[in-house]
Amino acid sequence: MDPLPPPDPKRFEVSRGTLLFDRFMGIAIRLGGISVILAVFGIFYFIGKEVVPLFQSAEVKPVGMMHSDVPPAVMGVDEWGKLPFFYNGGDKLVFIQAKDQSRKEVDLPDLNGGQITAFSYDPVHQRVALGLADGQVGSFAVHYQQTYEDGKLSGVDASVEEEPFFQLEHGDGPVTEISYGDSGTGRIIAAKREGSTGSSVSIVQLGMKRSLLGKGKLSLIGETEVSTELPAPASLVRSSQNGAMVLIACENGEVAYFLADSEGVSKRQTFKPFDTAVPRQINFLFGGVSIIVTGSDGEQSQWSLFRKNGEGERLFGETKTFPNLPQGKVLFAGSQRNRSFLTGAGKHLSIRHSTSGAVRWEGETDLDPVAAVLDAKGENFIVAAADGSAERYSIHDPHPDSSWRAFFGKVWYEGGSEPVYQWQSTGGTDDFEPKLSLIPLIFGSLKGTFYALLFSIPVALLAALFSAAFLPPDIKKVVKPTMEIMSSLPSVVLGFLAGLWLAPILENRVPSVLLMLISIPLTALLTGFVWCRLPIQIRNRFEGGREWLVVLPFLALAAWLSWSLGPVIEKIFFVYKDPATGKEIADFRVWWPHATGARFEQRNSLVLGFMMGFAVIPVIFTIAEDALSNVPKSLTAAASALGANRWQVVWTVMLPVASSGIFSALMIGFGRAVGETMIMVMATGNTPVTQWNIFNGMRTLSANIAVELPEASEGSTHYRTLFLGAVVLFAMTFVMNTIAEVLRQRLRERNKLV
Amino acid sequence: MSAEEPKNQTPFSTTGRSRKGEPWVWLTAMGLSIGVVMALGLLLLIVVKGTASFWPRRIELMEVKTPQGKEMIAGFITRETERKDSSGALHQEVQIFRGNKDISGDTFRFYDRKDILKASRPKDYLRIERTEYGPAIVKPVALETSSGKVPAKAADFHKKLDEWIDQAADARAQLLVIERKKIGAISREIDALDTALKNQKVDPKVAEKRRAELQAEFDQRQKEAAEIRAKFTGTNLLVQTADGHDASIPVANVMGVFQSNQAGLFQRMGEMWHRIWEFLSDEPREANTEGGVFPAIFGTVVMTLVMSLFVTPFGVIAAIYLREYAKQGMVVRIVRICVNNLAGVPSIVFGVFGLAFFVYFVGAKIDHAFFADQLPTPTYGTPGILWASLTLALLTLPVVIVATEEALSAVPRGVREAALACGASKWQTIQRVVLPASLPGILTGVILAMARGAGEVAPLMLVGVVKFSPTLPIDGVAPFIHPDRKFMHLGFHIFDLGFQSPDAEAAIPVVYATALLLIVVVVTLNLTAILIRNRLKKRFATSSF
Question: Residue B425 and residue A486: Cβ atoms within 8 Å?
């Protein structure tokens, strides 16, 4: 026999191809796996990135100097901040192009030789009001024209339009203070004259008669002398840009508020903005409902019109105070887009926002400014010094009305009688003040979750206990998937049923439902009580684990009885007596608001809580059941061997051992409920209220995002605030889930040891 | 079964002799009862209400007392509700559907149950399905054709009517082809020509000539359509409503006539199948309250399939990496917790992310790179089916990762070691041994992900779903697949019809039917997953050692 050939050592070697492919797959899977995981974390990064700009303050940069030889008393600018004008009461208006410093002078209309003694500028209507030495008052308007090339702004030009003058009848001497307002259909001029007989203050109302063709004609309606109504001689007059009111500051520090309407001018209120200081500037904010008062010591506070305690007439009250300004000439320029304003004193400048009371930016200027102006887009401002030199700054502040306080604090909004948490992101008018507090939404989410869990936790935990401890395996095989199927029901179906099917049914049957909440558990307990008093021979005929089927007919009976008895209960306990007619109405929907002061709505938390049960119960049930089933057999068997009956084993052994697992089930149930969207959208009224009342709805973070985000424009404050809502929602669920996960892992390890 | 072997192995298989604590046991039993009743009850409710919306009801002619006197109404009761008046008294109220939106104004009437004085089921009443204004419930008078009138009492009335209805159906099909396909193609070509002309890619003279040709073809098609329509002018169904109004229904608009009160059980079942088929295969009409939901089914299916196309490979690769390649330590544990947690993150958060990242970021980049000539009208920078699928893929990624990891870890260690001992490389082991063994588990995960994706609505509202879309995401127009298109979705259809429809009452049957359809899809997917999982458990139970 030939000896076998020696084995080829190569035959145990792996082919190079296999090795290469193995290495390749190793790298590919590592790369793929890591990139998927990174992508998952990219979600957090990307949502966070959208939110960050909300918390950035304004950026202000100097962009260039300009020189006019006019020491500006008033200064105005066009919408783009490109062509400011400077004016000091002479007969010329000087425009300087920001781009190339080119200068243009415009002669002012002939003033009949009158000498200008007072002027003011209204940036909203771009109008300069003039008061003359002989007591005439009037104005001229600056009109800017833009030229476009290829859809881009290429140049700005300006012209001046003369407007009529009127002779003041009251008082004598020159006009020393003037302020102009324009409501579109009428105008108002407030002027102070300083004469030999003392000072007088007149409020002139002008009407605008519109002809069918062309421009309207101004006509005098009346002039009212108001100095007799002032507590002290006037030091400052200011009419609102919308021409509806006049504020007059007096030398003793008080401010008088006059309302001008079709019935004339009448004094409504006097108030004292500061304890000791005298108001040196009063400026209306965008919207014409709030003023910023600056005092002689640099104090600054905001006063708004509102009804005290929600009653009576709207009067001014202090709503916010701002940090003090340093000493120096006070500057002020209000935005025409939102409620921010530029203010400053001396070399100090700051941009502030009235809604949140926040300082958006602070800085120093090299000039010694005497005037400041903000363009209508809020992108540029110009400060000018007494020598006519001016510096232009650009502002980048895309989200002026956002701040921690605006999102999470109580804010005193315009027109409100106290600081509140409020969500109202969009309004009907341009000058709407966005109310962006997330608190009502967070509250809504928590309220919805609370009522959902109030119903789900007992049902789910009881079911899990029974299933883990008493249910025979062959039944369990059917029951568990049934509960799992429940968790897969699309929430849009649940929401639809809640809103359109259950809510109308329950609306008339609240007492029945309340009765059921009591009668059903009682029936179960009673059935158990009666059952265990039956003779042992009968009881032994039934196998354990069938109790849930046996109890069903009794529960159904209890439910039916409660449903039918509900109206009877309503007639006994929930009767409201109408004081007007003396008629008694047995209607829970009427009784509830009168008894508790809280509203009753068809789509309320009761309906929501029940429907949310379909989404939450299976989640809690599955996890709690797992935790309870995994309690080591040795423990329960030991307890049984020591003589514990079946409930004692559950109560004293299973529950304590599985407690952390049950707790984690609750956490995950919480996470599921808090993020649920469609049920919340469809089954609640979606009003952002902050009451725990079970018979009204709520607006949750998730529903709010679903409803509002499709309409929010990309990159706007509203859009980013909704993202912030998503971050809050995400954080809530993530924290809860992490706690739950850690607890579960710990429980698993502990059970392994036993 | 022998006496020594108790049938059930639970530690508490007897009800116990002790009475202590027994009521509490029954309380826990109540929890389970409520849970099971809730789950089954809801399914039953949807099934009953959903099926009932297809069932052809008998038409009742009712005499009703009103404050003005008496009135006649023909229709059927769609809902019975309780209403409390201002004095707190409870009224049983019925909602009656009478159709005839164009003749009588309102389709639904509410009456106090007590006010219905008399009810009968006259044999001659018809339910007429129409292309416009919803169904009509009327008494036929005559069929008016160009060759004269056929009275309703005539023996061949129904035969003639059916012939005309069949002809009308054919004509509608022809018109659809002409108007939507042929004329649509012409206007698309004209648009393309305009764009080419604007970008100076075509000679103006050639373009002008081509345009003239297209215009001629367009006119020709329009003439054809007008001819088809002309055949039906003057052919009307003359009817009378229960309250005595005479009306005439153009036969061209009649889709079907059903003699509700003469039909036997089988005829009614046939009608029901007909309606179900129509519901599944037709497009919506009358602001989605009539017709079918085919575009919504199509959108849901395409979106779910595209989603699973994305989620399966990525989910499986991530799971293989985590389980087989990554070093098991603190970092992987934290990653695993995070992935698990992601499954609990609210779906709307994913929608928010999808909107910001896919639509406004990636979509805008694609538009700038490839569709710059159409800006500022966005192509991909607006919600669409691709972005919706990707968003849902992210949403369901944790489901697949978790399920795959579980399946991988359930493959017994011995099997792997055997493979390695035979000289297989690591990848060969995974490819030939581990993956095949865990395939059912992975499949379970994918099916669960599909079920979750199909039922999810909230994120879709942000990234691509619309209430009505005349075009499908896949159709016969080049390039055939349109990932940028918006789409309809069954879940959103429910929300939109139930809560944003101008005629919510009329929409309710469609909403229930849609809910039933959605639930059938989702529950079937889930049951499949559960079945696969149960089978899997058995297999591993025998193969482990």
Answer: no
Q: Is residue B13 part of a domain?
A: no
Continuous segment of H or E residues that includes residue B282? none
Which residue, B83, B98, B130, sits at the end of a domain?
B130
Percentage, residues of chain A above pLDDT 70: 97
Pairwise pLDDT comparison (A705 vs B481), residue with the higher score? A705
C-beta atoms of A647 and B345 within 8 A? no
Q: Cβ of B9 and A500 within 8 Å?
A: no
ipTM more than 0.90? no
Name the domain boundary from B229, B252, B269: B269
With beta carbons under 8 A apart, name residues in chain A contacting B303: none
Rounded Cα–Cα distance for residues B285 and B290 (Å): 5
Please count the structural domains in chain B: 3
Cross-chain Cβ contact B519/A678 below 8 Å: no
Residue in B with minimal Cα distance to A644: B18
Confidence tier at B539 by pLDDT (50, 70, 90): low
pLDDT for residue A542 is more than 90: no
A486: which chain B residues are within 8 Å (Cβ-Cβ)?
35, 38-39, 42
What is the Cα–Cα distance from A176 to A116, expressed in whole angstroms?
A: 9
Residues A406 and A439 sit within 8 Å (Cβ to Cβ)? no
Last residue of a domain, which of A259, A293, A321? A259
What is the tally of structural domains in chain A? 2
Q: Quick one: closest CA in A to B423, which residue?
A: A14
B368 and B476 within one domain: yes
Residue type at A58 in one-letter notation: A
Test B356 with A738 for CB contact under 8 angstroms: no
Q: Do A488 and B17 touch (CB under 8 A)?
A: no
pLDDT digits (tens, 9 = 90+) for B4-24: 444 444 444 444 566 778 889
Q: Are residues B318 and B213 in the same domain?
A: no
Nearest to B321 among A34, A637, A640 (CB): A34
Backbone angles phi, psi at A392, to 5 degrees: -105, 135
Q: Does A365 map to a domain?
A: no
Of A42, A496, A726, which is closest to B515 when you measure between CB atoms?
Answer: A496
Domain limit, last residue, from A206, A237, A259:
A259
B500 shares its domain with B456: yes
Domain assignment present for A562: no
Smallest CA–CA distance, residue B138 to chain A, in Å, is 30
Within chain A, what is the greatest distance between any pair of CA atoms? 147
How far apart (Å, rounded) are the C-alpha atoms in residues A743 and A290? Answer: 53
> How does pLDDT run across A395-407, given as a tens digit for each residue?
988 888 888 888 9
Of the candidate ranges A185-194, B59-68, B315-324, B498-507, the one whose mean pLDDT is the lowest: B498-507
Domain hosting A239: range is 116-135+165-259
Rounded Cα distance between B141 and B157, Å, is 10
Tell me phi and psi for residue B475, to 5 degrees: -155, -170
* Residue at B528 is within a domain: yes
**Do B385 and B488 fall within a single domain?**
yes
Do the domain assignments include residue A446?
yes
In a shared domain, residues B126 and B146: no
pLDDT tens digits along A483-521: 888 888 999 999 999 988 999 888 888 899 999 999 999
Tell me whether residue B188 is in a domain.
Answer: yes
B458 contacts on A by Cβ (under 8 Å): 491, 677-678, 681, 702, 706
| Chain mean position to CA B135 | 22
Residues of A in contact with B534 (CB under 8 A): 477
Burial of residue A52 (CB within 10 Å: 0-12, 13-18, 19+) is exposed
Higher pLDDT, A88 or A617: A617
Output helix, strand, coil percentages for chain A, rounded to the nearest 5. Answer: 40, 30, 30
Task: Give the residue numbers spanning the domain of B70.
Answer: 60-130
Contact (CB, 8 A) for A250 and A256: yes
